[in-house]
Amino acid sequence: MAAKGEGSNESKKRKRPLTSSSASDSSKGEKPSNPKKVKLPSSSHPNKGANKPFKSTKQQSQQQQPLKFKSKFGKSDTHGEKTVPKTKRELRLQAKELAEARKKKRKPHYTLEQELASLWEKMRQRNIAKQDRSKLVSEALRKMKGKIHEIASSHVSSRVLQICVKNCSQAERDAVYEELRPHFITLACNTYAVHLVKKMLDNASKKQLAEFISFLHGHVAALLRHMVGSVVIEHAYQLGNATQKQALLLELYSTELQLFKDLVSMKESKLVDVISRLGLQKTSVLRHMSSVIQPILEKGIVDHSIIHKALIEYLSIADPSSAADVIQQLSGPLLVRMVHSKEGSRIAMLCIKHGSAKERKKIIKGMKGFVGKIANDQRGNMVLVCILSIVDDTKLVAKVVVRELQAILKELVLDKGGLEVNSDLDKREKSSKVGEDVEEDNSDTEDVTTESDKRANEGGKKDPFLRRQELLVNSGLAESLIDTCIESAGELLRSNFGKEVIYEVATGGAGGILRPDLDAKLEALYEAIASLAAQPNSEEEEEDHLLENFHSSRTIRRLVLDCPAFASTLWKKALKGKCKTWADGHSSRVVCAFMESSDSAVQALARKELQPLVDGGILKLPENKQLEKQVKVSKAK
């Protein structure tokens, strides 16, 4: 029974096909290692695919071929097969063709622009004849006729139009103006077309300029808030006369002036006068101006003089809190971009005067890297003077301002701006309000640098002499300045501006601030000047002798009169025994200064040698009542 049961169970089990390995294993009497079912090729099962149709050898070979795909270079490629790569030149040409096709599809005037570009390359050459350039310009304008406003926004076409407007005839220029006339406001906001608009303004007649400014009416505030459009407003403001400038400004003051054009034809230059003339509410004007100015400051559009003028007028009527908000916004790198204009430098000085210590610190740190440029600027140098006169944090000023000034001392002392920075300025009493300072600064708007600008520094809490001592002497600036004067003594004495600097240094500075710490350096300076004066006068020299030059002879004369130590060194080293040689011409003024000196020791040095020259008529003393009085007194004694 047991045997039967086992046999029945074995019959129920499915028979498994044996692989070669399993067969070998079974032949050895071992169990197969892999229990999984292994599929055999169809050939081993002849009955399994009996119903399928028979495939020929050709069909089987086609079925076994790899799939084909299209490569990125446009050719069909076969998987697994090697393709011949294109050369770099072929790839460049193919990419260029694709780019050209895309540009033609995107730009409706692409073909015209290409033609204009070829003409532009010819007409922009410097060695081309004027007639040939005129022909090329006329041809380009003929091709663009009727499409100028459409292609003016293109990078290429804008350049072509600029050179055409510059070199075309007046009739052709008028034709371009008439075609662009309805589109000026739109073009003013385009990155490339704005240059064409500026070129049109540069070459516009008075009538066209006035008409263009009238087109801007109602758009001034909006364009000033635009990074590109503000450039056009500033350009028109610079080209316009006083009435046209005022017309552009008045739109920023009030909504009424922006809407009603006939109210703008006034001649009042100050905002306070405009308010009183039209009976406007001050609060309303402040609110409107704040809404115009705040977005401009937030975007950092502070380079234009029209904005500087608007800010000055705003500060003239603003309450302390509103003025403080503007000062806080401007304190920093923004202020550096404003100091080049008259109103901008005044705003900078107001920010320094009325700003907090934190805001002053931001302003000074924002000037890092630009101190040299500011010092050489006609307006900006007054801002540096204000910082040196007001800010009590002398360590910060020495670190940022003085350090950069030391690097350009020679350039600075020969420049007019350097003369302003080195000069002593008058003081004035401290004002408590920003508006009061602005009104005083606006008292004389025609002068380039008014006295109110020079008196803008009111002084900080620190003692002025102590501040000067820390900035000038302790920082090492004075020593570097004296070294520069020694190295370039001849050049400075002959210079119209440098002579003033070397005079101030040689006399020890205002209040004798350079003495006694730098007495040895000053003696070296006296020796350098005397050595140059002791050189023989030769006609072969290109430059005039130091005693014969107009500027240097008068500066040395002043030093003889005001600095006895220098007079003594000059006499012993350069003039003793040689006065007869220098008794004529510009040098005679230097020799006579020894007789005119108020110091008895200086007179005693030269009297023995000079008196015979005076008595003999060789040396003529200047007609001076004070000198005659001194001579009479000495004779009476």
TrEMBL record:
Residues 115-554 form the PUM-HD domain. Residues 1-90, 426-461 are annotated as: Disordered. It holds the Pfam family CPL. GO terms for cellular component: nucleolus. Residues 52-68 have a biased composition (Low complexity). It comes from the Eukaryota. Residues 74-90, 426-436, 451-461 have a biased composition (Basic and acidic residues). This is PUM-HD domain-containing protein. It comes from Rhododendron simsii. The lineage of its organism: Eukaryota, Viridiplantae, Streptophyta, Embryophyta, Tracheophyta.
